[in-house]
Amino acid sequence: MKITAIETSVISIPFTMDGPHNRFAGQLWDHLEILLVKVETEDGLVGWGEAFGHAAIASTKAAIDSIIAPLVLGRDATDINGLTRSVLHGTHLLGRNGSFVYGFSGIEIALWDLAGKRAKQPVWQLLGGPARKELDTYASLLCYTDPVLVAQNVSKAAGQGYRFIKLHEVTREATLAALKAPGAEHAKIMLDVNCAWLPVKAREMAHSLANDGLLWLEEPVWPPEDVHSLSSVRAKGVPIAAGENVAGLFGFKTLIEANAIDIAQPSVTKVGGIGEMVKVIHYCQANGVEVYPHCPYFGPGLLASYHVASALIEQPLIEILWIEMQANPFDPWVRSTGGKVQLPQGPGLGVDPDPAILKRYLKGDIVRTA
């Protein structure tokens, strides 16, 4: 079944976050931007994917429009493994962890959406998963810095039914404020510092946090590929989570062989798509490492994470950003209620976007390669 067209588009949606907006990669982050990838086949079916993302959207979109889409056009949409091998090999000199892998991830997710629609099965069923209706989620708070705001948002999230809450802070003061917040006694708290510390500082901080009851400490070491220093931080007694910044299966193999992580966090929009994420999960499970997807996304990337996690992880836990979007073309499926999301039951990813919302929040031009 030949691929006849690929479209990329960006939608930009205002959001609030119960605190002042942050700067991200030098930009004020007050809009959610979603890079959507639409793949069409000769039988008239359409699949939707999402490519990473955030401040990297311009480079990822350019990679798809200029190089990846022409490599994919005319190819068999059902040969997902063959396309993965061909495209990623064809672009490997351009980077094994960056815009070209991110761009192909979006296309690959769309191919799985097509595969499910053609088979009239949801992706979780194609992957051999059980018939679940809903999945547990955790509230992934953005960075507030102010311990008072941290405590307020932890309490609010706990009050909305979240039993797992992740912080994006870099001080023990803010972490303790979260742990002591009203309602926090009913939730597990995680801390993501986004690779903030050099190894010596990371070990010091891990030692200070060792008895605070964190469910995990995420990406404490800069640079993230310093797996042996990460292992030395893990030795301080706090469970370590990482993986959103590594390149595919072999990146996770490196982390695990260094005894650096307790929890692996593959990201479907960054790692190469659903097929590579499946390989990562199987490898981690064979080596006794828990897997929780990294998925602070807002469209098909988030939905794909639901399907893979539901199919392959015994007790899946889905990351949901603690924000309030003005709208979303994939509503209500991308919103968590009472600490849970609903697992789509329709074919493919189970949800196509609302065209009216796509049109309302479109940023720039739709680029069509045919």
Topology:
Layout: E1 3-16, E2 23-24, E3 27-28, E4 31-41, E5 46-51, H1 57-72, H2 80-90, H3 99-119, H4 123-126, E6 134-140, H5 147-159, E7 164-167, H6 172-179, E8 188-192, H7 199-209, E9 217-218, H8 227-234, E10 240-242, H9 248-257, E11 263-264, H10 274-286, E12 290-291, H11 300-312, E13 317-321, E14 324-325, E15 340-342, H12 355-361, E16 362-369
Parallel strand pairs: 6-7, 6-13, 7-8, 8-9, 9-10, 10-11, 11-12
Antiparallel strand pairs: 1-4, 1-14, 1-16, 2-3, 4-5, 6-15
Q: Could you describe the 3D structure shown?
A:
By secondary structure, the protein is an alpha/beta fold. Helix content is 36%, strand content 21%. It contains 12 helices and 16 strands. It has helices spanning 57-72, 80-90, 99-119, 123-126, 147-159, 172-179, 199-209, 227-234, 248-257, 274-286, 300-312, 355-361; strands at 3-16, 23-24, 27-28, 31-41, 46-51, 134-140, 164-167, 188-192, 217-218, 240-242, 263-264, 290-291, 317-321, 324-325, 340-342, 362-369. The strands form 3 sheets. Strands 6, 7, 8, 9, 10, 11, 12, 13 and 15 form a 9-stranded mixed sheet that branches. Strand 4 (31-41) and strand 5 (46-51) form a beta hairpin. Helix 2 runs antiparallel to helix 3. The longest helix has 21 residues, at 99-119. The relative contact order is 0.17. The mean pLDDT is 97.
